[in-house]
Amino acid sequence: MIDNTINDTSRIKDARYLSKVIKADEAAALIPHKAQIGFSGFVGAGSPLYIPIAIANRAQKLHEAGQEYKISIYSGASTDVDLDGILAKANCVEFRTPFNTDPNMRGRINAGETRYLDVHLSSLAWQVECGYFGDMDFAVIEISGITEDGKLIPTTSVGNNQAWLNAAKKVILELNIHQPKELEGFHDIYVQAKPPFREPIPLKTARDRIGSPYMSVDFDKVVGVVLSSTEDRLNRFTPLDEVSIAIGDNVAKFFAAEEAAGRLPKGKLLPLQSGIGNVANAVLAALSKAGYKGLECYSEVIQDGMLDLVKDGTVDLASASALSLSPTAVEEFRKNVDFYKEHIILRPQEISNSPELVRRLGVVAMNGMLEADIYGNINSTNVMGTQMMNGIGGSGDFARNGYLSLFLTPSVAKGGAISAIVPFVSHVDHTEHDTMVVVTEYGYADLRGCSPRERAQKMIAIAHPDYRDMLQDYFDRACAQPKPGHTPHILSEALSWHDRFNKTGSMKK
């Protein structure tokens, strides 16, 4: 809900901006049909919320009057229900990229009503800046303050904010007075030049700061500053269950084996990247339980589990692009914000997800997935090959370039009706070449140095018991063909499990 009574301008230290203060509906009125808009926001953190609500209200009125009104949305990653969700409900989104988790937007995408482009998170900013998608008409960016010299203080995410401020013809700022003032100083904003003038990124450790604590903007491009007071989308994680705990423990066992083999530094590992969700939280909890101290993380998102590890000393430094916290964790963060400022750095996603830096730092990548096949190909995005879930996000940035690449998943979904290990994935996001280790609650499959047939046996071993015999039968018959080849498949059956699920509601025979 928009609160039009907010008039606290105390966070606007540059008096020039006071003349630009407008209401949310006035800001929405500036945005025409067919506008391309770069919104701030990364996994629900740092999204402007008043302006999207006002845009949705305007769109509904125009639609009721028989007029067309649709916009294109560019963001950092997923946003808030009061951005993606409310605009999808208003049916005013023509195009969306690069990542989405809102069910209403997902419905529009899968119905073909909203065009969707799934992009590696490290890539979108420079593609926009180089003109791949035409002109960006507006940037709508949430901030927590404006300094005396006109610099912008980010909020709980950085994402693609600076890139949108640079690329957009016009800028609307949403100044959220609910965000802690103490956020000033958390950020490290570094801007890369466009090719052919791009230089090596001068970051050698996860704790290096190479940019500015502030974002910058051309004052003349700013057409409005909207005052708001609202929380981020608060992610609520369910308590860890036996399956996620088992997956976390298996990751810890793998790390212990790598340390024993001399492939990871003992007690320190290498900078860790972790996806979002309960399995990721379980992995982080397993590292604490294993007794690690002083770890570094170079990731996209800091969620509850990472905050806990910073607090207990398991993690000494966490670099990311956003904070994605539950209500309890938000309270903890606000209470001890000065402590966390010493241990957390928030960066643009071009930097947090940079393939150059992921490879240089030797990041250990840990990401979720929808399904894997017996040879190690990974599907992260499309349910049954056709229905977009969320998107590839940053998993590709880290998986292809990481020192180690782990994919984590429960062995089954939908109460056991879907196996996460299948003969052949219905959609490929990460090929077998980028998959080193797959982890389920039944163990880990270390695929490094293995031929396809060796990989298949390791993958079958970590599948759910209800599906192991079916997988082994498929593999054995594929190998028994007259010309099984290097990667044995029975083409007429390779996707039969998905076909069976679509027809019967279960992959089981």
Q: Describe it for me?
A:
The structure is a single chain. It contains 17 helices and 27 strands. The chain has 509 residues and is of the alpha/beta class. The strands form 8 sheets. The chain has an 8-stranded parallel sheet with strand order 1-10-9-6-2-3-4-5. Helix 2 packs parallel to helix 3 (81-89), helix 7 (242-260) crosses helix 8 and helix 13 crosses helix 14 (395-401). The longest helix has 19 residues, at 242-260. It starts with 20 loop residues before the first strand and ends in a 5-residue tail after the last helix. The model has no long low-confidence stretch (mean pLDDT 96).
In short:
The protein has 509 residues and is of the alpha/beta class.
Broad shape: globular
| Helix content bin | 25-40%
User: What share of the residues does DSSP label as strand, in percent?
Assistant: 15-25%
The quaternary organization reads as: single chain
The number of E-state strands comes to 27
What topology, given as strand order, has the largest sheet? 1-10-9-6-2-3-4-5
Low-confidence stretches: none
Q: How would you sum up the major sheet?
A: 8 strands, parallel
Distance from N terminus to C terminus (CA atoms, Å) equals 50 Å
Whole-number average pLDDT?
96
* Tally of individual helices: 17
